[in-house]
Amino acid sequence: MNSSQQRGVEAPRARGTDRSLARRAELISIGRKLFADTSYDTLSMDDIARQAHVAKGLIYYYFKSKRGYYLAIVEDSVADLITFAASGVQLPSVERVHRTIDCYLRYAEDNQAAYRTIVSGGIGFDTQVHAIRDGVREVIVATIAEGAYGSSDITPVVRMGLFGWVCAVEGATLDWIDRPDLSRDTMCELLVKMLGGALRAIEEIEPAYVAPGPARRDG
């Protein structure tokens, strides 16, 4: 087979792959909204297919099962959130902490259905879903530690202090997108100050981990 014939064989296959990936991404986007508004147990595959305006077999083709579909949605949402929250690595440490929190809130505000899926939606008993959610929390902890201390290599006390703050941020952010009484700037400043309190508490127990400047303004 000559080169032009080879290209002729590969091009349709590549186009088919592109269409397949686009279709899969479209189904995931639809699923984000469906699972954010309705619990996992309530939605049947028939319900999903009807609301997505596709044949049920198409969902099985791409995701094998309802659980596979849900996990793909959660993993896709997590990837987006991590990308937003971990941006700004070139900034000084204090600015990076602020940037991380602001990007986190922007993501939650602009992608409310996806955020609810990550934090509170779906099959709570499923260990794989828990692992995905725990993973994103650990990434946020590591990102904050890098910004605050210049390293994600932290002691158990430091990790627990930051982990507790991240869990508080999740609850506060869920409430904020449901009842946006505060501006994003005000919400960001509040969470920064809450982080300052957590960093000061960490420093009291682990003096080697000195809280960055903004955490000490009111001290």
In short:
The protein has helices at 3-37, 45-52, 56-63, 66-85, 93-110, 112-119, 127-149, 156-178, 184-205.
How would you describe what is shown here?
The chain is mainly alpha-helical. The chain has 2 domains: 3-69, Homeodomain-like (Arc Repressor Mutant, subunit A, Orthogonal Bundle); 72-213, Tetracycline Repressor, domain 2, CATH 1.10.357.10. 75% of the residues lie in helices and 0% in strands. It contains 9 helices and no strands. The protein has helices spanning 3-37, 45-52, 56-63, 66-85, 93-110, 112-119, 127-149, 156-178, 184-205. It is elongated and about 60 Å long. Mean pLDDT is 82; it is low at 215-219.
CATH homology-level superfamily of the largest domain: Tetracycline Repressor, domain 2
Helices and strands, in order, run as HHHHHHHHH
Q: What is the helix content?
A: over 70%
CATH class value of the largest domain: Mainly Alpha
Tell the overall outline.
elongated
- Please, what is the average pLDDT? 82
Q: How many discrete domains?
A: 2
DSSP strand count: 0
**Would you give the CATH topology of the largest domain?**
Tetracycline Repressor, domain 2
Summarize the biggest pleated sheet. Answer: none
Can you lay out the helices and strands and say which pair or pack?
Layout: H1 3-37, H2 45-52, H3 56-63, H4 66-85, H5 93-110, H6 112-119, H7 127-149, H8 156-178, H9 184-205
